[in-house]
Amino acid sequence: MGQLKGQTNKTFVITAHFDHLGIKNERIYNGADDNASGVAALFTIAEYFKSKPTKHNLVFAALDAKEIGSLGAEYFLKNYTNKESISLNINLDMIAHSDYDPELFACGLFLYPDLRDPLEDSKSEKIQLLFGHDDPDNKEQSDWTFSSDHKVFHREKIPFIYYGVPDHKDYHRSTDTYATINTEFYIEAVKTIIRSIENLDEYLSE
């Protein structure tokens, strides 16, 4: 965990889980996309904002035990002493692997539609930033509302945006290694997320 102090008492908590599946049948499951990609982005985003102060405090939390029920996220929020200051959770989980079209999803805008405008302004010309996977009545998409650590914040009525990609051919397989990462897509995804944090910081400070 780490924190960059902002200019107000409001806080963004940026999360990524660092656990994966370990070893099964003598195969190592490295979890390059799920979720080393999110953890590496966490460090990159923190490095970026060290020289670009924000209005919100930025708390960076690498969490354990997502794969067995988000126990790390539950422990974090239960023991966070200033929970009422958290205005947003930004969760990064699988952001580096796009098999076909270069698509990154921001999930949560069906539930928190007031966050849409700053994300519209964060879009990239190189990848598609799409909104969805959060409407339980949309039968064409799976609902990701409770699929990762952001669910713990959502249950506490803290708004979230979850960045991720749909399940791909290497999801939860031993082939989820650095070799199957889409490097150009990943770099652009992180840039897009950084822009979104900047825009959300301004928007939620008004």
Automatic annotation (TrEMBL):
Peptidase M28 domain: residues covered: 2-194
SUPFAM superfamilies hit by this protein: Zn-dependent exopeptidases (SSF53187)
Domain of life: Bacteria
The protein's name in its UniProt record: M28 family peptidase
Gene3D superfamilies (UniProt xref): Zn peptidases
InterPro entries registered for this protein in UniProt: M28_fam, Peptidase_M28
